[in-house]
Amino acid sequence: MKSLIINSILALSSCFLSFGQKTNPPTTPNFLVIVADDAGWNDVGYNGSEIKTPNIDWLAKNGAQLNRLYAAPTCSPSRASFFTGRPSSRMGIVAPISDKSNLSLPSDVTTLPQALHQQNYQTALFGKWHLGLNPSSGPKAYGFDYSYGFLHGQIDQYSHEYKNGDPSWHRNGEFITEKGHVTDLVENEAITWLKTKRDPSKNFYIQLSYSAPHFPLQEEDKWKKPYLKSIKNNSRRDYAAAMSHLDYSIGQIMKTLKQQHLDKNTVIIFMSDNGAMDKWNPGNQYQGRHAANDVLGNNFPLRDWKTSNYEGAIRVPAIIYWKNKTKSSLNNNYISVTDLMPTILSLAGAKSIPATVEGQNIWNSIITKDSIPNQAIYIRGHLQESIIEKPWKLIRTRHKNAPTVFELFNIEKDPEEKENLMLTHSSITDKLKQDLEVEFAKDAKEVNSARE
């Protein structure tokens, strides 16, 4: 009888334990966000490039390719939109922050790393910041526990100085001097942090913001050698070498995740900050140390280059991979870079999203490929504005001394944006003009005060 009672108690205990296990909240993931600098649509192997990117291609093969992820046409605006979940023009950032500018992210907007702190995440940025050129407006001010890399854009890969000679290389906001190529240094620091500096009791958010394949192109011969026969143009070969170097570095980080038993529960996001540049003339930058590049990236078959609002500038290669969670897929939903912040926060367990966020959680569309309803994407650069409402895209080009020009494209049927349909689809044009004006009116006063 005593034995029967004991067995009954053990059985009940087992039931309660089992019930308790079922009600435990799911484990939230780590995040690794990888941002290439100026990589074009056709500069990754999985989009048909002659450049070899096996690690990026592996992510594309095993994850969800975001076939229509839209970013801003230049670097600072894309990064501002990503970190805040809202169009960068709301904060007065419509062009790269450059020279001696004091422009930075506003202090009254919650950033992604700040919001992740509320979920007990540890945050680290390795590489490019470009949202404040002074240490006081660097990554630490906006929620990064650890930061290493460069504050500016467009730095020399070895001296680590900005194009005008200003210092940029730092660790946690303190300028430092180091030897080595930016790609290698960013990789090594991230690996060291993963192995020895992170808090294993916390989830982490890491952002790897490379300088590659942005000019100046300064790659060792070992990265150029595979392209000596396949790419005849020296500049394009140097660009391909920068992409291969970047891809190798990504592979080393992924290898480290696996070694540290972190690969299973880490969401990996890869993207470019904007489309590729076609060429570069340095002029007197870097005191004349670097030669011009007559060929750089490749956005084929998309139209135009970085800085414009055509597809080649704003539709960027992008992938989301989470082991055993994402399926190999081609996701054709129209997704904005502003959607990534609320998606990451939702996966991190956030019950609410900061009120300033305008993007939406698109995770369900990633794992199911269900369509995203009522998705309108507003993008403003310093040359043009556009609004996208599937399958339509309206681009407005304002001129100081000439009439404003509008272009309407059906980007499903005409992804190369060859045929302006404004005159034959006047009702659609009128609606999108109104929608564009509504969005434009929400932008910061300082960029809307002098209407061109």
Tell me about this structure.
The structure is a single chain. This protein has 452 residues and is an alpha/beta fold. It has twelve helices and 17 strands. It has helices at residues 2-23, 54-62, 75-84, 112-117, 182-197, 221-224, 234-259, 311-314, 340-347, 363-368, 426-441, 445-448, and strands spanning 30-36, 64-66, 69-70, 121-128, 146-150, 169-171, 174-175, 203-209, 266-272, 315-316, 318-321, 329-331, 335-336, 376-380, 385-389, 392-397, 405-410. The strands form three sheets. The chain has a ten-stranded mixed beta sheet with strand order 7-6-5-4-8-1-9-11-2-12. It has a four-stranded antiparallel beta sheet with strand order 14-15-16-17, with helices on one face. It is globular and about 60 Å long.
Overall 3D form = globular
Tell me about the largest β-sheet.
10 strands, mixed
Range of strand content = 15-25%
Oligomer: single chain
What do the pLDDT scores average to? 94
The helix/strand order is: HEHEEHHEEEEHEHHEHEEEEHHEEEEHH
Uncertain parts:
1-26
**Biggest sheet, spatial arrangement of strands:** 7-6-5-4-8-1-9-11-2-12
Quick one: how many beta strands?
17
In angstroms, what is the radius of gyration? 23 Å
Q: Gap between N and C termini, in Å?
A: 92 Å
Structural class: alpha/beta
Provide the helix percentage: 25-40%
Q: How many helices?
A: 12
